[in-house]
Structure formats: structure tokens, C-alpha cells
Amino acid sequence: MMDAIQDAWNGLNGWLFEAAVQPALYALGLMAWAEDAFDWMDFFMFGLLQVAIVYAICRPLEAWKPVERWGDRRRVRVDILYTMLARLGILPLIAFIAFSAMESRLAGLVADSGWVPPTLETLVPALREYPLLALLTYIVVMDFGEYWRHRFQHTFGWWWALHSIHHAQTQMTFWTDDRNHVLDDVIGALWFGGLALLIGVPPGQFPLVVIVLRLAESLSHANIRLSFGAVGERLLVSPRFHRLHHGQGRDLANKNFAVLLPIWDWIFGTADFRRDYFPPTGDGSPADAPVHGGWLRQQMVGLRRLGAALTR
Ligand SMILES: [Zn+2]
Ligand SMILES: [Zn+2]
């Protein structure tokens, strides 16, 4: 059964690669990247599958137990566009190509100097024998990195200028996960890819780490009146936990920065485990503010805010 699914998946990807990707690479003179492109198309297709899975899980939950009901879902639609742009893997693809090019050059330099950079697996050799343990360790370390990236987005004025676009959404749904300024996406990809290289996440495990964190993030933004209970709330980020971070009102945005594991908020004193609290979301900007316009307008607002923060 699993073999049949695997075969069908490989068959579909192989066909798509030969029909569309390979001719494009050939035309662009990028055939040297063919192998990487094939690996990444697999991931790209998995991204599509991911959107389908997230939709299949979150959409019925949102219909069943929504925090808010809206007649007009216009503001949700722009977040769907954000998701399509981000999840089709354009940014991760650019980051991956840039990094693997840089890495091979760095690897050459390092090999010449005779120095072996430490990775988690060289520090803890046991990880090599237990791939599942290694994967879990990478997820925990990457999640720790994401906690601090998110915290810095709220700490530095210039970074908040970009991240404020994410927080402006008043109709928050599982699509809101990807509502980010493009520049913020680029910085995020560099941050994530840089940390992954630093700790030596193997390329085969990298997509899995991305998928686990992204699934957690989508669910945490969903418009669902759902908390994981006294214990569960402390183990995994729930829709209640992250909604509080998006809540309108003083200081809520300085709480609950975690993406997957609330333990970081717990350790660093930013956790708010208040039960059954589902505040309205957004930054309080009026309904006709440009930040509620289309994708392009929101991107321009982000750039303007960035310029103001940098020249202040
Ligand atoms: Zn935030
Ligand atoms: Zn968020």
C-alpha cells in the first residue's frame, strides 16, 4: 500500500519534471542544477500537498467552532494569496540555491584549511545512529531559533515595521500564517537556512523540519475556539496560545512568541497561559487603512514603515 503511494508520487513527480522543469532549465542554461531542481520539485509538490492537508484539517475545524464569523471574507482572500506565493516554495528555493552555492564554496575553503566545522552530529555522534532522535533535535533547535527571530521582530523598530503587516489582520485564519512582508520572508529564510547550515541539518531532513514547523504555525493561526488543556497548552502551541499574541490591546503582542513549543516562552518569561481567552485580533487600524488593501498596497505600507523606522 505504502509502496503504491510512493510509486505514484514518484511517477507524478518524474512526469512533471520531464514535461515542465527540465525543458525550462535547459532553456535557461541551468541544467547543472537539474538534480537539485528535481529534489526541490519533490518538496514543492509536498508543499502543495501540505496546503491540501492543512486545508482539510483546519477548514472543517474553523467551520465547526469558529471564534468569529464574518459575512464578508475579503480580508481572508489576501492571506490566501500570501500563502500561495510563500508555500509554492519560491523563497525557500532561492535561499536553498544561494546557500548550497555558498556552502560548497565555503566547504572548499574549509577543506583547504583542514578545519572541520562542528555540527550537532559531530558534537553528539549518537544522533547519527538514531535518525528520528536527530530529526526531533533539529526541530527543537530550529524552533528555538524561530522563537528568537519572532521576538526580535517585535524588539527592533525596523523589523517590527515589516512584521506589523502580519499583525494587521483582523480576520485571522490558518492562511494568516504566511501573511508576511516579502522582505521579512527573505530575512526569515536566511535566518532559518543559516541556522540549519550552522547545526548541519542534512538536506534530506530539512524539508521535514520545515513541514512540521509550518503545520504547527498554520494551525496556531486558525480561527478555531480551541485550546489544548492545562498540560497540552504547555507542550504545543495552540490556536488559543497564538491568538493571544495577535490580540488587540496593550502588551498582548509581547506574549507567546513561540511557533511550536511554548517552553521557550515559559523559560524566557513571555508566556501567557490564560485559559479560554480569545481576543479580537489586529493592530486597531481603521477598516479603510491601506494595510487592509490588496497585497501590493500592504507591501508598500511595509516599505514605508521600514523607511520611517530607519530614518527616525
Ligand atoms: Zn508577532
Ligand atoms: Zn502570527
TrEMBL record:
Q: So where does this one cross the membrane?
A: 12-34, 40-58, 79-102
Listed InterPro entries = Fatty_acid_hydroxylase (IPR006694), Sterol_desaturase/TMEM195 (IPR051689)
Q: What is its main location?
A: membrane
Q: How does it sit in the membrane?
A: Multi-pass membrane protein
Domain annotation Fatty acid hydroxylase: ranges: 136-270
Q: Which UniProt keywords apply?
A: Lipid metabolism, Membrane, Oxidoreductase, Transmembrane, Transmembrane helix
Q: Where in the cell is it found?
A: Endomembrane system
What Pfam families does the entry give?
FA_hydroxylase (PF04116)
Please list the GO terms describing molecular function.
Answer: glyceryl-ether monooxygenase activity; iron ion binding
Gene Ontology, cellular component aspect: endomembrane system; membrane
User: Can you supply a Gene Ontology BP term from the record?
Assistant: lipid biosynthetic process
The name on file for this protein is: Fatty acid hydroxylase family protein
